[in-house]
Design goal:
21% strand, 9 helices, single chain, alpha/beta, 40% helix
Amino acid sequence: MQHLIDKANVLLEALPYIRQFSGKRMVIKYGGAAMVQKDLMSFVQDVVLLKFVGILPVVVHGGGPQIGQLLKRLNKESRFVEGMRVTDHETMEAVEMVLAGKINKDIVNLLQQCGGRAVGLCGKDGGLLRARKMWLRGNDGRIRRDVDLGLVGEVETVQTDVIDALQQSGFIPVVAPVGGSEDGQTYNINADLVAGRVAGALRSEKFILLTDVEGILNQQKELISSIDVQGVQRLIADGIISGGMLPKVQCCVDALDAGVAKVHIIDGRVEHAILLEMFTDKGVGTQIVGQSSYPHTP
């Protein structure tokens, strides 16, 4: 009997958060490095549960490792500059096949197997993402014309009409980070940046970034449960946030600046990580908020 009562208490712990977030939008970015089949099923189950308790999820996914695998089979070398995949026309075709094709439709299929109704998109659908060519910048802020990333893009504008229409009809939008420019060129865009911009454009209640790390760590390599933007800037200045975590954290800060209420960085490899972060008092990752004195409350 106690085992059954414990299950009821878990539901009761989740109740205030379900009530708080019902009817609210949440953008969830799922990273390619965390996308193994076991973790993917846990992830889609979490997303479908969110939908059935009244939350409005939008999924944005990556797929870098999967793109690399396809290019390797095609005997095409992958080259990176400052973490960005140099993308020529042949590579762009592979990127679009993997992201807008296989991964996107795999996620849609699994969401529907779990009882959800999902529609796969890329940024070119419905004019969702208007893109432009990305140029790296030096420490002085000037564009570096000596480094050409090819068809790597950045988000110029986000038009949420297609997401609005899908959510009003009860669908879960699943977005691949491929965008189109005004002149019809297709661009490969970093999924973290896309997710952050979409979350900001939707004024999302939450932006949840699932990746292959547990969150932001302090100097002692301990998980920071909750931090404000000023604390993040201090960790960056001290060099504690660096490398691949730096652009992830920056897109989170940008999302907060755009009007997102809270941002969460959590480990997508943890089974049911979204539910643990959203519906428990302590959470399992790092939340970033726009002002200080916040406890870690989902």
